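hey so u asked for the seq, here:
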Amino acid sequence: MRGGICAVEAEGLGVFRVLDKLARGGVEVLSARPTQKNTLEITIRGKDVRKTFAILRGSCYNIKKVHPLGLSRLLARALPRVGLIVGALLFALFVCFFETRILAVRVEGSGAYYEREIRAILEEEGVGRFSARPRDTAMIVARILALPRVEFCTVETEGGVLRVKVEADRAEVPASPAPLCAPASGVVEELIVVRGTSCVRVGDSIAQGEVAVACYSLLGGRQVPVCVMAKIAVRYHVEQEYELGEREAAAQALIDFGPLENMQMRRTERGFLVEGDRIAVAAAGLA
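ran it, structure tokens below
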């Protein structure tokens, strides 16, 4: 035992003479006290234990036991249990680490059919398996509430499980997050936007296939992907000449174009020219 302080218990007649023998041998005695008759406990430095044994070997004094004191005693007790102590420390670190991590994500409630979209939102916000617990869930909740028909949402952590509770109208099948495009080329007659960002206004000209409502919402200066809930009506002019009588031309135009607004008919050399305004409607998430 090289370091620390040790207690050596010596026994024999006139045991106090041991102190003189050790002093002459160069062993510094830090303290001494009798424990029983003819028994003396001597406190020395750990590095002097072997020298003490050598000095007292062959004398009439016996060393009954040696044990470390203070930190040395703790170390001596701990060394045989190093594996157990290391295991306990690693287990404590393991528990502390995973108490702050997400081990599983569960999507619950009537809106659970949005699980794929919700997991995608969580991933984009940096939340997933083994990630740190989210400190602020406001953005996550806002993005989930932006999904069609979602009426309620909470995001809570219980142990290592992140629970996302979503309540939504079961009557509607969730739509794919895609923009709403113009169904025809003309002038925007009507535009209703519940979710999404409008790219045109009523009265604007628009081409067929052009994006009318983009599939994102602006939240805190960020573009947050959403499923569009919008409706657009586009007015466009049509005309067609028919080599038919007036009544037959009107009937054929109804078949070809449907009801026309501001319909007019003009006689031509070959029949009648039918013209008027048609309303084309497109919607996403709205009837």
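The longest strand covers residues 229-242. Confidence is low (pLDDT under 50) at residues 71-75.
lmk if thats what u needed
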